[in-house]
Amino acid sequence: MEMTPPPREAVPLLRVRQLNVRYPGCVAVQDLDLTVRRNEVVALVGESGSGKSTVAGAIAGLLPAAATVAGRVLFDGSDMLTLPPAALRDLRGSEIGMIFQEPMTSLNPVLTIGTQIAEVLRRHRKLGAAAARARAIELLDLVRLPDPHRRVDDYPHHLSGGQRQRVMIAIAVACEPRLLVADEPTTALDVTIQAQVLELLADLRRQMSMALLLITHDLAVVGQWADRVAVMQGGRKVEEGTRDELFFAPRHPYSQGLLAASLQVEPDSHHSRLRLAEVRHGTDAATGTASLAFSAPVRRVVPAPVRADDAAPVLAVRNLVAQYSSRYGTISAVKDASFHVGRGETLGLVGESGCGKSTLSKTIVGLIPAVQGQVILDGTDIAPLRGRALRVHRAGVQLVFQDPYASLNPRLRIGDALEEILVVHKAGDRGERQRRVRAMLDAVGLPAAAAGRYPHEFSGGQRQRIGIARALILRPKLLICDEPVSALDVSVRAQILNLFVDLKDEFGLSYLFISHDLSVINYIADRVMVMQKGEAVETLGRDELFTSATHPYTRSLIAATPGWPQPAAPAAARLARTA
Amino acid sequence: MKYFLRRRLLQFIPIVLGICILNFALIQLAPGDLAEVVAGESGQVDSAGGSAEQMAQLRAAYGLDQPPHRQLLAYLGRLLSFDLGYSHRFGAPVAELIRDRIGATALLGVSSLLVAVACGVLLGVLSARFRDGWLDRAVSAAMALCYSVPVFWLALMLVVVFGVKLQWFPIGGMQEVGIEAAGHWARVRDVLWHMVLPVATLAVYATAVYARFTRASMVDALQEDYIRTARSKGLSEWLVYFRHALRNALLPVLTMVGGSFGELLAGSIVIETVFSWPGLGKLTYDAVVNRDTNLLLSILFLSSLMVMATNVLVDVMYARLDPRIELDGGRR
């Protein structure tokens, strides 16, 4: 308590001092200092497990009871950590608004969205039922939800993910808070929706003069929206500075590694020209502290990407139609798709959720029967095959899934899970099978001891390596990778992408590489096919993607993908720092 | 909704038919000769010394000389014309017997269901609220006890303690003899008084089930992201628990309630016998003991109808509570 309080505007809105958060058995946040000034956008960046969401919880007093918190979180002068619960509740929703990552689950499924918005108004603004409802409709209009008068009585399940996130924003800004804490607000959304939601947040922030604490793993989002950035790793803040300082003059090796491991949507960011940097976390054997190493990105000159040998492609799909039935009837997920994947080629398939990417991949491997059309794998049409004949040919094309954990049987040791595939396909005797399992684990960069362990003993990146090993063990000619790096952190993603590039040469593979993320497709693909609502709307060479895309949907995808900040301004910043 | 009800009612037809055939077959397979029972009850023939001729006449009169499939068809035919037959044990039409008793059983069943749901949900919410605290542990231990104690033993103990020793509650029957004369409200009070022990006995097991289920369901619901959203709005814990968590947590509990309705009917057999409650449960017991085929078949038939009807009711209520469920299976 100062004797003469400084003028209000001079005090930062939020000052976090020496914040320490401990859960039973682990330290989540250590000695964190963070300042958010009025009207400022501060990004808190880090990978999963870095403690960034715990910081958000601590600021709003929303940590689970098991957490032990020390330090100070001063919001406008009052310490959030020592306020009585009632006073804390008065601030939450009124002075501090929060938006979370999962729009699909963050709204109560049994209450209308109108009720859920009105609730916060009635709590803090003491509005009556009718006034709160009227204001809720205004807010829905403000967050640009079409037809708010009708939509106000909808339940969350009537809304798409992007619309739900708009409702979450309406709840968060309903009382015009002074600080908005957004924890990965767009991570679960498609890229075009992400752009709209971030745009909306920026507009509202200006209108209501709110400060924004943006918590994210996505450096491209940071580059577009943040004024200042704090980088967290392993519970500690390793670096803080203006956006340009971070992007063009990062000081800490972790920030440098993170930037080098990130994908940029530009022509030179392609596997034939650039090997991504790999950040590796480890423990220093001598001191016992966490250590960090990263390999610099390697520029390389590889001969131009293999041109597809159109005469004998490894996969040719002709006029494929695929459907699945739901309670709403039969849905045509793939309408008349025709394309091919040449030998040694990577065909990138990009499109937003629900466009039919996954149905297409399942139809190609025969998990969903094709309604019509041909799937010619290495010269044989496998679409009409069933049973044993299909099984024989299915070995030639394998899938790698997005969620490696969900696609591994938790009760099978990795070695057994891999060997089982060989048993099913009657490959060799026991000794031969085990030799192949060991060789495959080695090929994907896992130690031989991994064979004896269970899935839960591996990290996300290691599980994806297992997923790749499982797909490769039958020596397929074609690998269909369905969002294989979407669930991974930036640094792990770089490792896995490098692995895909290496394996392609080593095993002579071709890839059908599916992703919603244009920056991933841009890096890995030789040709790109854009899918929208079950139809392939455009297919072009990877280098032509940014120059000659003609379809409006392709263009909107490119426009919505956040670019890297341009190094025009940073010259000044660099000068200022050295001065 | 209309479409849903029509479809469900159509689904009833094969199920009801199956139940009737199954019931009929079970009774056919049970040992004993119906004709002898009829003969004994009606006093026409002394079952020990009855002549073969008289027995044959009886069999012919009740169609018992027909092959089983003909008897089944005859039974189904009578059901279709709402003829439930005649009870030889009670010397009255079955329909009349059931009509007289169904009210008493419904009163007992519905009351204990309401008590069990109310107590179970409340205890479950409290346990989840003070999860792993002393209250949670105490409730958990008490519920384990309620869950495992045999119903007939509990009924007898309640009678001994509260009926005989303390004499707080009457030990049997539904009302005092001649209470009608004391006026309407006195009678209501008297019936309520008589209900305490049987309802308590019947509700104990169900309360334990609902409490455990509600607790688990609440603990799950409280982990959900929308609870974090509710807290981030600055809502009081009371609102977070009762408006946001409980409404979601109740959905699986509701399914439980629907499913346990049949158990309640089964439980009432023991309870009504112990407390001499003049309901269907006691009637069922009498029908089984006396091999009163028509009565037993009709009670089984009615109970299965009731269980099915409850399930439809639960489905409808589920759709009311959970807007994601649309009974007619279409988009809005």
Report the structural category of chain A. Answer: alpha/beta
Radius of gyration of chain A: 26 Å
**Overall mean pLDDT score of chain B?**
82
Number of helices of chain B: 12
| Radius of gyration from the alpha-carbon trace of chain B, in angstroms | 24 Å
SSE-based structural type of chain B: mainly alpha
Tell me the distance between the termini of chain B: 12 Å
- Major sheet: arrangement of strands of chain B: 1-2
Shape field of chain A: globular
Report the helical percentage of chain A: 25-40%
Count the DSSP helices of chain A: 20
Largest protein-protein interface: A-B, 34 and 25 residues
Task: Give helix and strand order of chain B, one letter per element, not per position.
Answer: HHHHEEHHHHHHHH
Would you give an account of this structure?
The complex is a heterodimer of chains A (579) and B (332). Chain A has 579 residues and is an alpha/beta fold. In chain A, 35% of the residues lie in helices and 25% in strands. Chain A is built from 20 helices and 24 strands. In chain A, the strands form 6 sheets. Chain A has a 6-stranded mixed beta sheet with strand order 6-7-8-3-9-10, sandwiched between helices. Chain B has 332 residues and is mainly α. Chain B has helices at residues 2-29, 34-42, 52-61, 68-80, 94-129, 134-148, 151-165, 184-222, 225-232, 237-274, 280-289, 293-321; strands at 86-87, 92-93. Chain B has a two-stranded antiparallel ribbon with strand order 1-2. In chain B, strand 1 (86-87) and strand 2 form a beta hairpin. In chain B, helix 5 packs across helix 8. The A-B interface holds A 60, 62, 88-94, 97-98, 100, 102, 105-112, 116, 119-120, 123-124, 155, 157-158, 168, 171-172, 327-328 and B 224-226, 228-236, 239, 243-244, 247-248, 321-324, 329-332.
Note the topology:
The complex is a heterodimer of chains A (579) and B (332).
Chain A: E1 14-23, E2 26-36, E3 41-45, H1 52-60, E4 68-75, E5 78-79, H2 85-91, E6 96-99, H3 113-124, H4 129-142, H5 148-151, H6 161-173, E7 179-183, H7 191-208, E8 211-216, H8 219-225, E9 228-233, E10 236-242, H9 243-248, H10 253-261, E11 274-275, E12 279-283, E13 290-294, E14 298-299, E15 315-326, E16 329-341, E17 346-350, H11 357-364, E18 372-377, E19 380-381, H12 387-394, E20 397-400, H13 414-424, H14 430-443, H15 460-472, E21 478-482, H16 490-507, E22 510-515, H17 518-524, E23 527-532, E24 535-541, H18 545-548, H19 552-560, H20 570-578
Parallel strand pairs in A: 3-8, 3-9, 6-7, 7-8, 17-22, 17-23, 20-21, 21-22
Antiparallel strand pairs in A: 1-2, 1-4, 4-5, 9-10, 11-14, 12-13, 15-16, 15-18, 18-19, 23-24
Chain B: H1 2-29, H2 34-42, H3 52-61, H4 68-80, E1 86-87, E2 92-93, H5 94-129, H6 134-148, H7 151-165, H8 184-222, H9 225-232, H10 237-274, H11 280-289, H12 293-321
Helix pairs in contact in B: 1-12, 5-6, 5-8, 5-10, 6-8, 7-8, 7-10, 8-10, 9-10, 10-11, 10-12, 11-12
